[in-house]
Design a protein that fits this description.
It contains nine helices and seven strands. It is of the alpha/beta class.
Length: 248
Amino acid sequence: MPDGGRGDTSRVALVTGGTRGIGAAITRRLATRGIRVVAVYRGDTAAAQRMQEELDGVSVVRADLGDPDTCVRLVEDVHGEFGRIDHLVNNAGLLLESRSSDTNVSEWERIVAVNLSAAFHLSRVAIALMRTARYGRIVNVSSVTAVMGSPSEAAYGAAKSGLHGLTRSLARETARHGITVNTVVPGVFETDMTASMPEKTRAAILGMIPVGRRGNPDELAAAVEFLLDAGYCTGSVLTVDGGLSMGG
């Protein structure tokens, strides 16, 4: 089966965290290609409804990805409705700014469940379906915290780092079945989350980015799109951070 060029309306993509920020940019980019997108959201119903009204071929689904059974049903429901699932973008994330000594057990487990375990449960079910179709593309969205660390994001950094190992193991498992599995590592982008940071914090982070600006979400979406098209990339970790993770 070909990789799926632009305008291929037969493709079906599942994008978690797909109605705001980076996820919305990914959903929008795929939808404008004619790909049918199911965008998953957790809490912002208004943003989800706006996206569904704005874009043809986009469905929105509210789901708690911290629950393994919900992840399984989500993939099965998408496949049941459309008869296929070609692309899975594991973008949903939960960030808690908390030092390790202030992070309790339930917070740790929730952060790992949403940022790492959900990607495993969704991918596990999707891979079984993709293997039958002899085609599939999975992209996991990590974080620069996974490679740089953060004094106030131990749980988040650990969970996002886990995506790198998951990506490479699943890539090896599926490479002979027409399936690719890759990861993108975003730096700091212009989103609602960064806009809500104190100006002092925003300025300090900006000073650490070699290119001198925060990223546009569509720039990260372009990297995801590339990996969804790239049939000879698997097990790759693509950093899109304006040079932030180089340090210095």
